[in-house]
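Our consortium's second objective concerns turning raw sequence data into structural hypotheses that experimental partners can test. To show how far this objective has progressed, the report includes one record in full. It was chosen at random from the queue rather than selected for favorable results. The single chain below, 212 residues long, was entered without modification.
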Amino acid sequence: MSTSARAAVLLVDDHALVRLGFRALTQAHGAYTGEGMEALEASTLAEAMALYERHRGAIGLVLLDLALPDTQGLSGLVDFQARFPDATIAMLSGSRQPAQVQAALAMGAVAWLQKGGDLQELAHFLRRWREDGVPPPADAADAADPATAPGQALGLRQQQVLRHVLEGMSNREIAEAMSLGEGTVKNHVTSLLLRFGMRSRSQLISRLGAQG
Protein backbone atom coordinates (compact mmCIF):
# COMPACT_ATOMS: atom_id res chain seq x y z
CA MET A 1 0.00 0.00 0.00
CA SER A 2 1.24 3.46 -0.87
CA THR A 3 1.74 5.85 2.00
CA SER A 4 1.68 9.62 2.03
CA ALA A 5 2.22 12.33 4.62
CA ARG A 6 -0.96 13.94 3.30
CA ALA A 7 -3.31 11.17 4.36
CA ALA A 8 -6.21 13.18 5.82
CA VAL A 9 -9.49 13.67 3.96
CA LEU A 10 -11.55 16.84 4.12
CA LEU A 11 -15.28 16.33 3.54
CA VAL A 12 -17.23 19.48 2.65
CA ASP A 13 -20.98 18.92 2.87
CA ASP A 14 -23.74 20.86 4.60
CA HIS A 15 -25.86 17.79 5.38
CA ALA A 16 -25.23 16.37 8.87
CA LEU A 17 -26.34 12.86 7.83
CA VAL A 18 -23.78 12.78 5.01
CA ARG A 19 -21.03 13.81 7.41
CA LEU A 20 -22.21 11.20 9.92
CA GLY A 21 -22.12 8.52 7.24
CA PHE A 22 -18.65 9.66 6.22
CA ARG A 23 -17.39 9.38 9.79
CA ALA A 24 -18.78 5.85 10.00
CA LEU A 25 -17.17 5.05 6.66
CA THR A 26 -13.71 6.20 7.74
CA GLN A 27 -14.03 4.35 11.05
CA ALA A 28 -15.01 1.17 9.24
CA HIS A 29 -12.04 1.60 6.92
CA GLY A 30 -9.71 1.85 9.91
CA ALA A 31 -11.22 -1.21 11.55
CA TYR A 32 -10.92 -3.21 8.33
CA THR A 33 -7.37 -2.21 7.36
CA GLY A 34 -5.89 -1.47 10.76
CA GLU A 35 -4.90 1.96 9.52
CA GLY A 36 -6.69 5.06 10.73
CA MET A 37 -7.95 7.60 8.23
CA GLU A 38 -8.02 11.12 9.61
CA ALA A 39 -11.21 12.88 8.57
CA LEU A 40 -11.88 16.61 8.72
CA GLU A 41 -15.31 18.09 8.07
CA ALA A 42 -16.75 21.42 6.95
CA SER A 43 -20.29 22.51 6.12
CA THR A 44 -19.47 25.56 3.95
CA LEU A 45 -16.83 26.48 1.40
CA ALA A 46 -15.49 29.25 3.63
CA GLU A 47 -15.08 26.85 6.54
CA ALA A 48 -13.44 24.30 4.25
CA MET A 49 -10.87 26.74 2.92
CA ALA A 50 -10.03 27.88 6.45
CA LEU A 51 -9.49 24.25 7.50
CA TYR A 52 -7.40 23.53 4.43
CA GLU A 53 -5.26 26.59 5.14
CA ARG A 54 -4.54 25.31 8.64
CA HIS A 55 -4.01 21.64 7.70
CA ARG A 56 -2.86 21.77 4.09
CA GLY A 57 0.27 19.76 4.91
CA ALA A 58 -1.89 16.86 6.11
CA ILE A 59 -4.91 16.91 3.75
CA GLY A 60 -4.41 14.74 0.70
CA LEU A 61 -7.96 14.77 -0.63
CA VAL A 62 -10.90 17.18 -0.57
CA LEU A 63 -14.41 15.81 -1.13
CA LEU A 64 -16.37 18.88 -2.19
CA ASP A 65 -20.17 18.89 -2.38
CA LEU A 66 -21.60 20.70 -5.40
CA ALA A 67 -24.50 22.27 -3.48
CA LEU A 68 -23.18 24.29 -0.55
CA PRO A 69 -24.83 27.32 1.09
CA ASP A 70 -22.07 29.67 -0.11
CA THR A 71 -21.50 28.28 -3.64
CA GLN A 72 -23.36 28.22 -6.92
CA GLY A 73 -22.74 25.17 -9.08
CA LEU A 74 -19.04 24.77 -9.85
CA SER A 75 -18.06 28.08 -8.25
CA GLY A 76 -16.88 26.18 -5.17
CA LEU A 77 -14.41 24.14 -7.22
CA VAL A 78 -13.20 27.24 -9.05
CA ASP A 79 -12.75 29.25 -5.86
CA PHE A 80 -11.01 26.42 -4.00
CA GLN A 81 -8.57 25.80 -6.82
CA ALA A 82 -7.89 29.50 -7.25
CA ARG A 83 -6.78 29.72 -3.62
CA PHE A 84 -5.18 26.27 -3.35
CA PRO A 85 -4.04 25.14 -6.81
CA ASP A 86 -2.23 22.13 -5.32
CA ALA A 87 -5.40 20.67 -3.75
CA THR A 88 -6.68 17.29 -4.94
CA ILE A 89 -10.45 17.66 -5.23
CA ALA A 90 -13.24 15.20 -5.99
CA MET A 91 -16.77 16.52 -6.48
CA LEU A 92 -19.80 15.12 -4.65
CA SER A 93 -23.31 15.52 -6.02
CA GLY A 94 -26.75 14.02 -5.86
CA SER A 95 -27.00 14.30 -9.65
CA ARG A 96 -24.80 13.55 -12.63
CA GLN A 97 -25.37 16.21 -15.28
CA PRO A 98 -23.01 15.55 -18.21
CA ALA A 99 -22.13 19.23 -18.76
CA GLN A 100 -21.20 19.74 -15.12
CA VAL A 101 -19.25 16.49 -14.91
CA GLN A 102 -17.29 17.35 -18.06
CA ALA A 103 -16.60 20.86 -16.81
CA ALA A 104 -15.48 19.72 -13.36
CA LEU A 105 -13.06 17.15 -14.79
CA ALA A 106 -11.73 19.65 -17.33
CA MET A 107 -11.16 22.12 -14.50
CA GLY A 108 -9.01 19.62 -12.62
CA ALA A 109 -11.36 17.64 -10.36
CA VAL A 110 -10.12 14.05 -10.10
CA ALA A 111 -13.61 12.51 -9.98
CA TRP A 112 -17.32 13.16 -9.83
CA LEU A 113 -18.86 10.97 -7.13
CA GLN A 114 -22.56 10.28 -6.80
CA LYS A 115 -23.94 10.69 -3.30
CA GLY A 116 -26.09 7.73 -2.28
CA GLY A 117 -27.58 6.29 0.86
CA ASP A 118 -25.06 3.44 1.13
CA LEU A 119 -22.00 5.56 0.24
CA GLN A 120 -20.61 2.59 -1.72
CA GLU A 121 -19.14 4.70 -4.52
CA LEU A 122 -17.39 6.94 -2.01
CA ALA A 123 -16.11 3.93 -0.06
CA HIS A 124 -14.69 2.39 -3.23
CA PHE A 125 -13.06 5.65 -4.23
CA LEU A 126 -11.44 6.18 -0.82
CA ARG A 127 -10.10 2.62 -0.83
CA ARG A 128 -8.54 3.13 -4.26
CA TRP A 129 -7.11 6.46 -3.15
CA ARG A 130 -5.43 4.94 -0.09
CA GLU A 131 -4.08 2.00 -2.07
CA ASP A 132 -2.89 3.90 -5.14
CA GLY A 133 -1.65 7.06 -3.42
CA VAL A 134 -3.61 9.38 -5.74
CA PRO A 135 -7.20 9.15 -6.98
CA PRO A 136 -7.90 7.91 -10.51
CA PRO A 137 -8.78 10.59 -13.07
CA ALA A 138 -12.50 9.75 -12.97
CA ASP A 139 -14.84 6.97 -11.97
CA ALA A 140 -15.67 4.15 -14.31
CA ALA A 141 -19.07 5.55 -15.24
CA ASP A 142 -17.59 8.84 -16.38
CA ALA A 143 -14.71 7.26 -18.29
CA ALA A 144 -17.09 5.02 -20.18
CA ASP A 145 -19.22 7.92 -21.37
CA PRO A 146 -17.60 10.04 -24.11
CA ALA A 147 -19.78 12.98 -23.12
CA THR A 148 -18.28 13.09 -19.64
CA ALA A 149 -14.86 11.54 -20.05
CA PRO A 150 -12.04 13.83 -18.88
CA GLY A 151 -10.13 15.67 -21.56
CA GLN A 152 -7.27 18.11 -21.44
CA ALA A 153 -7.69 20.33 -18.39
CA LEU A 154 -8.47 23.97 -18.80
CA GLY A 155 -5.53 26.32 -18.54
CA LEU A 156 -5.29 28.68 -15.58
CA ARG A 157 -6.42 31.68 -17.61
CA GLN A 158 -9.40 29.75 -19.02
CA GLN A 159 -10.33 28.73 -15.48
CA GLN A 160 -10.18 32.35 -14.37
CA VAL A 161 -12.35 33.48 -17.29
CA LEU A 162 -14.85 30.71 -16.56
CA ARG A 163 -14.96 31.72 -12.92
CA HIS A 164 -15.78 35.31 -13.85
CA VAL A 165 -18.39 34.21 -16.38
CA LEU A 166 -20.12 32.11 -13.72
CA GLU A 167 -20.02 35.17 -11.46
CA GLY A 168 -22.04 37.02 -14.10
CA MET A 169 -19.31 39.43 -15.21
CA SER A 170 -19.38 40.89 -18.73
CA ASN A 171 -16.48 40.56 -21.17
CA ARG A 172 -15.48 44.15 -20.44
CA GLU A 173 -15.52 43.56 -16.69
CA ILE A 174 -13.49 40.37 -17.09
CA ALA A 175 -10.98 42.19 -19.31
CA GLU A 176 -10.52 44.89 -16.70
CA ALA A 177 -10.22 42.39 -13.84
CA MET A 178 -7.65 40.27 -15.66
CA SER A 179 -5.83 43.09 -17.51
CA LEU A 180 -6.65 41.53 -20.86
CA GLY A 181 -8.01 42.87 -24.11
CA GLU A 182 -11.75 42.52 -24.52
CA GLY A 183 -11.19 40.59 -27.76
CA THR A 184 -8.97 38.12 -25.92
CA VAL A 185 -11.67 37.54 -23.33
CA LYS A 186 -14.25 37.06 -26.07
CA ASN A 187 -12.04 34.40 -27.65
CA HIS A 188 -11.72 32.61 -24.32
CA VAL A 189 -15.48 32.68 -23.79
CA THR A 190 -16.06 31.33 -27.31
CA SER A 191 -13.59 28.51 -26.62
CA LEU A 192 -15.39 27.67 -23.40
CA LEU A 193 -18.75 27.54 -25.18
CA LEU A 194 -17.32 25.17 -27.77
CA ARG A 195 -15.55 23.09 -25.10
CA PHE A 196 -18.74 22.45 -23.16
CA GLY A 197 -21.12 22.32 -26.12
CA MET A 198 -23.07 25.44 -25.13
CA ARG A 199 -24.78 27.80 -27.57
CA SER A 200 -24.70 30.93 -25.46
CA ARG A 201 -23.18 32.54 -22.40
CA SER A 202 -26.51 32.33 -20.56
CA GLN A 203 -26.71 28.59 -21.24
CA LEU A 204 -23.17 28.14 -19.92
CA ILE A 205 -24.09 29.95 -16.71
CA SER A 206 -27.37 28.07 -16.40
CA ARG A 207 -25.89 24.61 -16.92
CA LEU A 208 -22.61 24.95 -15.01
CA GLY A 209 -23.95 27.22 -12.31
CA ALA A 210 -26.94 25.04 -11.51
CA GLN A 211 -26.99 23.23 -8.20
CA GLY A 212 -26.97 19.46 -8.20
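The partners drew two points from this record. Strands lie at 8-12, 39-42, 59-65, 89-93, 111-114. The chain has ten helices and five strands. Both points have been shared with the crystallography group to help prioritize constructs.
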